[in-house]
Amino acid sequence: MSETVAALLGLEQQLRKASDLAQLFYTLVNQTHSCVSYTQALLLVGEGLRHPQVVAVSDLPTVDYTSPYISWAERLAKSLIAMGTADQSQLIRPVDLNDKLAAEWRELELPDFLLWQPLRVEARDNETAGALLLLRDKAWSEAERGIAQHLAGSAGHALFALRRHQRFKGLQAGLRQRRIWLLAGLATPVFLALPVRLSTLAPVAVVPKAPHVVAAPLEGVVRQVVAMPNQLVEPGEPLVYMDDTELANREAVARQALSVARAELKTVQQGGFMDPNQKARLAELEAQVRLEEAEWQYAREQLERSTIKSDRTGVAVLDNPDEWKGRPVRVGERIMQVADPQQVEFMVMLPVKDSIALVPGAEVQVFLDNDPLHAWSAQLSQSGYEPRMTPDQQLAYRLIARLGEAEAGVAPPRIGLRGTAKVYGDRVSLFFYLFRRPITSVRQWLGW
After folding, report:
1. Does the reported pTM lie above 0.85?
2. Angle 142-192/430-446 helices, nearest 10 degrees?
């Protein structure tokens, strides 16, 4: 067996092994050289060669359709189709073409000879499925052209088979995709009708339950806050010292006035035995002494109240004690809280845009930032009707949730911790759960 026949058989075997069109195109333009020598090769493909397009070029991984070389080859194919010779194997030189194509041939510095070999499909009445263009500097012999023609028949059959298989696969994929869409269309309404629990997320903070409010007992200026945040305090322990300079002066003046009134009353009492006129002033002076005693007693009580003391055991709940130094306060203004660390609850600030219908006893899951993997179980106990402005300038409803029975006996979280709460509402359809916000936005925009 000659080397040419062996090479031809090997190439036909590679064409049969091609699993897709891209592999077949690559084999034709790069492996045909083992049977028929050439310098450059191009492959054009088109149904009946009506709209030929370059799909592969030798020694190039992809086709650059902006290249003048590719554009020239496609216009050459259209010219042969117009002349009616595209379905014939022919040897072409620049002199065989019109002036424009010949001039571009020379400008591109292509080899002098071009072999136009159509790819025919015998299974479809020798329909031309494409064309193989081979270029080199010398003409091909009759034997080489015969080999090229035989190879073109094998390539045309392989191209026909792969295209048919590809169409069948495309039809299968289309049917499969249509079936998937049909099943999805039938399953979507059922899926969207599934009942789910409506829920929403909101910021949460651990706050004391029924804390004792430490407020200013009188109008004045705070001198010092001695209680530190989370400090355990006992009954009678000083918490806040207010500026008592003016109060101490008032107490001293009232005490001095009382001493004067008592001394005057004593003098009159001693002289009343000898002077009846002095005895008549006793009732007036006794009333004056009682008045001065009341004023001194009030001044002393005010002085004592300038030191605010704790009346119960608990922890001090406040932010920064230094911020209170020198701050004027009014009567009843809250300075801090004293709370039992074992009695806590959760304060949830639910944004208005995320609000849902809630009922007392609704389930609340709390995830604190210090332990996001552990969820605290709670039940909704209070919900505000009017939204309030939060520090981040958002309107939100204030919700209070108390620890659930499952958390009984477990050390409660520390006051002041923050996190995220998941508040559950009634059961709704999955459609409403997914599209609740878009529906609300559309209704607000349309004004329904």
Report:
1. no
2. 90
Instruction: Output 105-109 pairs: Cβ under 8 A, ≥24 positions apart.
Output: 105/72, 108/68, 108/69, 108/72
Q: What is the pLDDT of residues 94-114, one digit of tens each?
A: 888 888 999 999 998 899 899
Q: Contact 348/202 with Cβ under 8 angstroms?
A: yes
- 170 pLDDT band (50/70/90 cuts)? very low
- Cα gap 358→367, rounded to integer Å: 20
35: which 2 tokens? 């049977």
Calculate the alpha carbon distances from 131 to 118, 154, 379 in Å.
4, 13, 79
**Tokens at 302, concatenated:** 């005010």
Kindly list the structural domains of the chain, giving each domain's residue range(s) and its CATH number in brackets, ordered by start. 3-173 (3.30.450.40), 200-208+340-446 (2.40.30.170), 213-335 (no CATH)
Contact of 87 with 105, CB cutoff 8 Å:
no
Question: What is the spatial distance between Cα 241 and Cα 237, in angstroms, rounded to a whole number?
Answer: 11
pLDDT of residue 168: 46
Rounded to whole angstroms, the Cα distance separating 411 from 396 reads 29
Chain-centre distance of CA 4, in angstroms? 65
Contact (Cβ atoms closer than 8 angstroms) between residue 355 and residue 331: no
Give the pLDDT confidence of 291-327 residue by residue, as tens digits: 888 888 888 888 888 888 888 888 888 888 888 888 8
Q: What is the pLDDT confidence band of residue 403, given thresholds at 50, 70 and 90?
A: confident
